[in-house]
Amino acid sequence: MLVVCEGEVTEIEYLTGVRDYFRPLPVDVRSCRLVGLGKDPGSVVDYAIRERDKKAKEARAQKDANVAYDEVWCVVDVDDHKTLEGALSKARQNRINVAVSHPCFELWILYHFAECRAGCDGGALKSKIRKHLPTYDKHLGRDFPFDRYETARDRAQKADPRLTAPNSKGCNPSTNVWLLVDVIRRSGRS
To answer: What is the pLDDT of residues 55-98, one digit of tens each?
Structure first.
């Protein structure tokens, strides 16, 4: 599985932590910013398609289907991106799954601790997270409660019950990151 993130800190730390917590089959977690693509959902999806196709070509050359990615996910925020709708459409056309958080990924982090059903922005979410993680500055720390993902999923589903598929943008607040976490959990070995 390949997971390409728009962000370079919180998303990477969270998904790496989830991967380590559930110990799934191989999950490659990357940030597009680390490879110089910036924070644009269109670039994130384009990068994911290129990487998937590169691995598929490598698998054909090696005559080993296990080299190719079985599943590809992107993790993006709504923010003020003008390319989001186009990116979601392109992802659907290319069998890429996109988990979208509105307004941002910090909503998913907050759901591990508390409800949030009123529209908000990233600054408000960070303040709410600091009530539970006083030193939060995009970094999660080793003691983040990954075991609360089911509670977070329940809160996300209550906030926007219609957001049950990838490649969809929900209301503010909403996130379907739980779909990706469920896939990682199901492929876990523990």
So the answer is: 999 999 999 998 999 999 999 999 777 889 999 999 999 999 99
Whether this prediction's pTM lies above 0.90 is answered by yes
Q: How far apart are CA 111 and CA 89, in angstroms?
A: 27
Q: Where are the domains of the chain?
A: 2-186
Strand bridging mode 174-175 / 72-77: unpaired
Is residue 153 within a helix (H) or strand (E), and if so which, with residue range?
Answer: helix 149-159
What is the rounded distance in angstroms from the CA atom of residue 35 to the CA atom of residue 46? 13
**Residues 58, 61: Cα–Cα separation, whole Å:** 5
Helix (H) or strand (E) holding 4: strand 2-5
Instruction: Write the single-letter amino acid at 165.
Output: A
